[in-house]
Recover the amino acids of this structure.
């Protein structure tokens, strides 16, 4: 299994970023995919989720600002982030429940998002 997130960077408050996460070693089209983030000194939290059928769920803190999507042909999940706030600063990673069950300590390569005020 490999999960590689990319697209992070430094952005001013109010700005936008699009994150990508390429997956391998899983049956991507059948898997629910999730974006998590971990801010310094805080626990990892679930940000957004998209099922194999395309249903989405979001944490209250990002609802209406973030959009999760997927491209099964590219085995890639995306997170479009808009109206970014300094409190969105974190390392963002993707994962899947099927991966977490099998490899609970695996989190792949995350990508750092820093939002300046």
């Amino acid at each position: 299994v490999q999960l590689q997130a990319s697209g992070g960077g430094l952005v001013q408050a109010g700005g936008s970023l699009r994150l990508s996460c390429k997956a391998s070693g899983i049956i991507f089209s059948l898997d629910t995919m999730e974006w998590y983030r971990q801010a310094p000194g805080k626990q990892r939290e679930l940000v957004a989720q998209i099922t194999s059928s395309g249903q989405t769920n979001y944490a209250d803190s990002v609802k209406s600002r973030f959009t999760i999507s997927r491209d099964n042909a590219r085995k890639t999940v995306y997170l479009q982030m808009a109206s970014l706030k300094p409190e969105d600063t974190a390392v963002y990673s993707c994962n899947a429940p099927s991966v977490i069950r099998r490899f609970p300590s695996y989190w792949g390569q995350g990508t750092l998002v820093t939002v300046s005020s």
Observations:
- The radius of gyration is 13 Å.
